[in-house]
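Anyone else keep sequences and structure tokens together like this?

Example one:
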Amino acid sequence: MIEFIRACDKYELDCASSINFRMPNYEISPKEFLEFADIDLRDTTVKGKVGAVSNLKRALDCQLDMFFEAINIKSIFDSKNLKFSKKIQFLSDIGMLLTKSMNKLNTIRNRMEHNYLVPTIEDLEVYYEMVWNVIEIINLNVHIMKMGEIRYEASAGQEKFYIVNGYDISKRSFWFKITQRKTRDTNSIIKSLYKQDDYTEYVRAFQVFRCNIGFSESENAKEYKKRLKEISLIDI
């Protein structure tokens, strides 16, 4: 599908419809945990530093769980008892966050949690800023993903195709439909996440989904084709 779309020579956006992504409401929000951590950071004692670590950890875990629940895959992470590193790897794989940033975040977290070292104020401040950034990035992405049912026309020579994509939350499935304008012949692709073997193609479908949203905002065909090529070359 990626190669087919890249082979087209013209793209014209039709419209974008909303998808009902909803972040769940927990009794304590990630932002509240951040506020608690901010209070702890003003206490320079060991107790204050340890409290800051705990609340920053809760803020990040809470935000990740909210995101996974919004796209309906939290139960998969829970059933497999997948740890923090797997969760942030997923965000990195779909292109939401950079791998280098995620690895740095995990290194700081592990140093504080598993080596039983009293963190420095400098480490805590870096950790706080990174957690704050991750929370903001996830919230922004969910907001953008709400307009993720994209419709546009693509042309390959004299042939025209109508392309539609979206996400079925209940079935945790990305779907893509390509319809030949003249003959009305339609090809459909559905990529769901239910088991480990589904991961690679689900992630790649997620990347294309986000790429299509980016095109709907910019309508920059050159950048769109470049991004699709990058997705096709990514080793997941």
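And example two:
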Amino acid sequence: MTMEIVNRPDPPAGLRRRLWRLPILLYRLGLGPLLGSRVMLLTHTGRVSGLPRRAVIEVVRHDGHGYVAASGFGPKADWYRNVMATPRVTVQVGGRRFRATAVPLEAAEGAEIMARYAPRHPAAARRLCRIMGFAVDGSVADYREVGRHIPFVRFIPGDAPSS
């Protein structure tokens, strides 16, 4: 079997959305560090309202260039649409909070990130693919193909990078 897109779900709504947002409450209570370094609180600006918005998303990679996250619900996810409109954000990972700039990654880089992520976190990768509507056989090639279909964003600490 090779990767196929079975059903790309819409971002969660109603009760499901509230459940997905429960980790935000942990951050508000000062318990964010309990979530570890694989989860970040992203504070961004609403593209329509201009108001601060929050989302908790998984860190799929952290290196000297920043923190990388994937928009599992694709380009329809509110947080993704918001950071594409206003890339200046605040990120909190564990107890560390900092300003950052959101930079979208090319599909090829996303493919390589997903291909490296899946073998390190196989259960999470399978679960995420199922949630995102991808059927995979567990091979690196399949995860690489999934990575081509998911928008990845790098959050670069500090001021906006120069072009």
